[in-house]
Q: What sequence folds into this?
């Protein structure tokens, strides 16, 4: 199995309502992303509202996306369940549908310590056969993958890499040091740090905004990997402007990310702007700003 | 429906393994608690490993316990799901089985703000018909029910009371002030504060240790409500000693509470000591200390 | 030297402005407190704006208060300096002026770990001869005295006791367990927990509100120690009402405590309401509420 | 007055003991830094143990360093006092000695809110005449300069720029956006992010390691500003290796930074390794590692 490198958007989950997927929206979104040149898809993460939708909807989403993708790019599935057994169920389903990777977050309810985190990953490796990516997002789960723990986990067979959403570039560089000369893949979560992470040697990013403008993030990936720093800095300014508007307004950060992306995707006629509880939709004021941004952005290329 | 007052243990969930309930253990435990004089049972909370077991096991547990209880005391069901829809499913099942209350925690994954918390409770009230108790446990969920929010929620029809596990006695007294002259029921989570909470006017407690020695906590309830402070102070010293051992050892707090209680219950031949992931069982060293405590405690009455 | 038991107000520091003490205000306040029956005075703590005023003003304050007190009750001096050497200077001055105890907080700038905290207390014990009280206030200093550290420090010669402002009644009860059968004195910081702390065996309290109504807190001390729980509960309701108003309004908690107390003391013609930077004075709205409270309180006794 | 751009080491404060400066060490260190090409010096910050030494030693240090520098490069003085008046005293002294800038941290004891922070800076601007830099270090002070507050403060006359030690590169980029097209100077605190910060448009850095190897950091500054990314990446690896050793071992982060730098400087015969309380010296084990690093580093250039 080859290494994945590049842009792997954390796909939002198009919804008709709290209880039903927006199936045509899913088709549109998958095609939009693939035609935008992304290198993979990551389902059911924080941006994908993985923890909020029902297990049965998670299963349907995996099936539907894998069917639509038809192996054109790899699909990763997030395991964000508080129940280990339900995470394993999802992992089995992912394997069955042809997904190519799993992304495991520490459970959000019980705040396990480092040895418990090591043990949990170990227990998960016993149950799954797809490559595993560790998902570090202490702002959400309140549990960090400390460097000592990562140093023990990354060499384990079955662990392919890590998605780091801590926003801590020092930590990311320490991960890079740890994994130099290995096949481990490191992905940056927050897109505001995508350029920096690629410069210091990350393999790619999982930028929410790539749901909207996949080409922009693919271009960033190419600019840095081809050594064109001027272009990268230019693209960086665009990304910073985009996130300021799309992730702006009121609410907490994950809420603003999800409702902003979905609002933009609806404005682009790709899928519904509906979000699942406990999140709230973007306000009208935010929607207006997003529509203006989209116009400007599209006009300016 | 009458007010519940008194001791409502957060029942641990007897397990054979990660994937199967210990059904005879459940029967034993329910009978142990009822014969110990408790005033209600609270299922699927933090101590009940609600978030860690599969939804289908949650449903079976509710059914099984309600069947066993046969209406002798009220049963409350915890809604700790990250998915609102799965919480509603559980609420429906609880109603169908004859449970008498629901206990709602903010979802643990997305850290909603106060207006989102208000909205979520509001949305839940639209979906359920059993009385609702708010569950404040910011150490676990990272989301507090701030006093301003509580002041708006408690008067809502359908909201019967609150379980406060913040450990913050100033907050608890402010809750008391807010609800004076009302029917609202306030329950204290941490048993180390049970005596104090009853003195300042709480209606009861949800003490983990009552899984082991229900009479001890019932006696405390009676001592304070009958004005026998000397006796209460005596019982308080016992509770402090018990929790020091049972909740001691290594691990994080919820882990130590669950594995200590289950270890003690196995020593008393009531149910299995098995815990579900990501928790770990009590160490042998801890088990030994618990067995000694049990002997002393039982001998001394 | 005898044990101190009872009410030791954290005296506010009367100021003319940021740079000058309100000397007549200090005299009035000291007399007001002594005639109110308090058992000691604690200078230069969080409520005393110890960290905000100049070292030279701290020295003058100690001198002035000791001169006024004339040994009628013990005076304790807070060491809140970020500089160890300046703390020692203050300790020397306190000794010279006749103070009877020192209250040491971990430095607020560098967030030392537990072994560093132990070492620091150890180093301080080498430099001072007055009895030392440990000051636990993690909300302010971000450094807790963990129970293991306290267990090593309290038996040290020279360590007389502890002031716990954590607001954590479970912790306070664990301190009580640790010090049973010893001469160690435990004082409760937040007055909302004064009653509870006395019930579980604390020696006294350091309640901010005792600056305003020393008799109220002295009465609480007597009610609990004489076993009159009904009276204590009555007084507790008064204390809760008082703190709600006096510590209410906008600002952060220490700010609201200090400006509320000083506002009340000015309304009672005892001293100036001036506060030092970075705190802000009580708003006019808050002042109005405080004046109303004072009227009601005084009328009702 | 011209803009400062480049490397401004947070100078450690050479000490003979807790109570006395290492005056020859100060001379050596200043000459070492100037001959290493640094663009300025920052005294009495977190790395400079500003909060821990006595006010009189702070004054002597400012005098001594300014005398030694003789205007060759600008000197900035940190105002980390908990007492506003003592901060103003220091500012006056800095001005008198010829310092060229002041660096203000929120007081570490009282955790002021954003409007209080704004007010405090405003009050400080009334008292000082040297250019002011805001010092954002929430890990130490627990008070962040939120972007809304910064947006109001940076345009104020007298505010020249900001030192950001939050370690948050997203925040730093938002600062950059806020200040585009202005004269505001942005400095990066943690040296692990120096390269990234210069790439996204920062004016310079305040790297602790520049106390040891000023040329290394000056070279990084030049590499990025001249567009030589390959060289920058190379230097970055060296910086990461250096900080891993020098800031390694046990203790909390500021402690490890200070004792590591001083240990290295003593190994280089520049000044004493002594630190002031509450910090602890580097362990022998750490010292050994640092000495090895120094040999390798010096050999490899």
A:
């Amino acid at each position: 199995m080859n290494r994945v490198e590049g842009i792997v958007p954390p796909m939002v989950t198009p919804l008709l309502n709290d209880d039903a997927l927006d199936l045509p929206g899913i088709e549109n979104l998958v095609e939009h992303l693939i035609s935008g040149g992304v290198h993979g898809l990551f389902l059911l993460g924080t941006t994908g509202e993985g923890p909020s939708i029902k297990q049965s909807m998670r299963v349907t989403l995996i099936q539907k996306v894998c069917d639509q993708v038809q192996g054109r790019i790899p699909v990763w599935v997030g395991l964000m369940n508080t129940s280990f057994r339900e995470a394993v169920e999802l992992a089995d389903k992912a394997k069955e549908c042809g997904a190519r990777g799993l992304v495991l977050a520490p459970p959000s309810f019980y705040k396990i310590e480092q040895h418990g985190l090591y043990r949990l990953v170990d227990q998960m490796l016993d149950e799954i056969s797809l490559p595993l990516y560790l998902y570090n997002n202490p702002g959400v789960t309140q549990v960090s993958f400390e460097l000592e723990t990562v140093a023990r986990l990354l060499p384990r067979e079955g662990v392919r890499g890590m998605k780091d959403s801590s926003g801590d570039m020092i930590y990311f560089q320490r991960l890079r040091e740890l994994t130099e000369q290995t096949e481990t893949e490191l992905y940056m979560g927050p897109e505001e740090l995508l350029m920096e992470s690629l410069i210091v040697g990350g393999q790619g990013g999982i930028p929410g905004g790539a749901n909207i403008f996949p080409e922009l993030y693919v271009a960033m990936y190419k600019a840095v990997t081809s050594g064109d720093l001027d272009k990268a800095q230019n693209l960086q300014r665009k990304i910073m402007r985009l996130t300021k508007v799309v992730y702006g307004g009121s609410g907490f950060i994950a809420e603003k990310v999800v409702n902003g992306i979905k609002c933009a995707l609806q404005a682009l006629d790709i899928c519904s702007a509906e979000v699942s509880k406990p999140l709230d939709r973007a306000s009208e004021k935010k929607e207006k700003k997003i529509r203006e941004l989209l116009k400007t952005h599209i006009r300016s290329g």
Summary: The two ends of chain B are 35 Å apart (CA to CA). Strands of chain B lie at 6-7, 15-17, 20-21, 41-43, 75-79, 101-104, 132-136, 159-164, 185-188, 204-205. The longest helix of chain B spans residues 229-246. Chain B touches chain A through 40 residues (CB under 8 Å).
